[in-house]
Amino acid sequence: MTMINTNNIDSLIGANVVDTEGRKVGTVGQVYLESTTNQPSWVTVKTGLFGTSESFAPLDSADWTGDELRIGYDKNFVKDAPRIDTDGSLESADEDALYRYYGLSGSTVGQSTGTTGTYDDTSRDATVGDRRTEGYDTSGPTTDDAMTRSEEQLRVGKEQVGAGRARLRKHVVTENQTVTVPVSHEEVTLEREPITEANVGKATSGPDLSEEEHEVQLTEERVVVDKETVPVERVRLGKETVTEDQRVSEDVRKEEIDYDESDIDRQRRQSRDDTL
User: Fold this and answer.
1) Phi and psi at residue 131, in whole multiples of 5°?
2) Is residue 32 within 8 Å of 112, Cβ to Cβ?
3) DSSP bridge pairs for 40
């Protein structure tokens, strides 16, 4: 374990905070120093879905391992700590509320910082209170006669994450194609013509009787198959943005304020009802 002091404040900022069971509570947002010793005394822990809430946690029983801060309190107990403005020095009433909540003795707390520097000296003397496991009125016992009602609200954001990869791949497939091709061929036909004055000369030009042979060359068309590779189209990958609605469901807590009427008020109300 590393001792927590002003030399490692920079390392504390942004470090993970875990509770007594090793569960992550949040991350360190700010560090508060004791003005008398200038030593780290409190840290704020960023919690919530996007780290928008900050809860104070004491360092009196915390252990620093160099990469995470282990505090001696339960995760839910830290999250239920009084909600206090973390901008600048702590007000006296806010300090009192924190010390009572964590059951700690009084101390002197200075201004918050992410690095070392100068701090406001603010003396305080808080009494030791009982450690609480449930919330209480954060308006404090010394404020006016109004009670503050708080509630949790969902803050939903969006982030870009990888959803997969697509690629083009080309491979060769063989398929059978049938094409009908008309082809022609020659056939022998026998033609007879009578002897006329027009052809009698050709008919009697040879011997009267003889043996002869005549040949006719026949031709036909044959199908010749050849293959040629030609480009037919171009294919590319593109992207388009499709927007769809997604529902987010989360439990949120809120405080409700009930009115308990006194016996006198109850009697007066009953009397009015009877009169009516």
Assistant:
1) -65, 130
2) yes
3) 33
Spell out the domain ranges in the chain: 6-113
**What global pTM score does this model have?**
0.39
Residues 60, 42: Cα–Cα separation, whole Å: 8
Residue-wise pLDDT tens digits, 169-222 = 999 999 999 999 999 999 999 988 898 988 888 878 878 788 888 898 999 999
Comparing 123 with 196, the larger pLDDT belongs to 196
* pLDDT above 60: residue 30: yes
d(CA 42, CA 54): 12
Instruction: Find, among 52, 108, 98, the residue nearest to 78 by Cα.
Output: 98
Helical ranges in 103-254 per DSSP H = 200-203
Amino acid occupying residue 140: G
Does residue 238 have a pLDDT over 80?
A: yes
State the pairing for strand pair 68-70/63-64.
antiparallel
The sign of the dihedral angle between the CA atoms of 85, 90, 92, 94 is: positive
User: Under CATH, which architecture does the 6-113 domain have?
Assistant: Alpha-Beta Complex (3.90)
* Token pair of 117 as six digits: 């520097």
* Residue type (1 letter), 39: Q
DSSP SS3 for 242: coil
Report the pLDDT value the prediction gives residue 155, as an integer from 0 to 100: 82
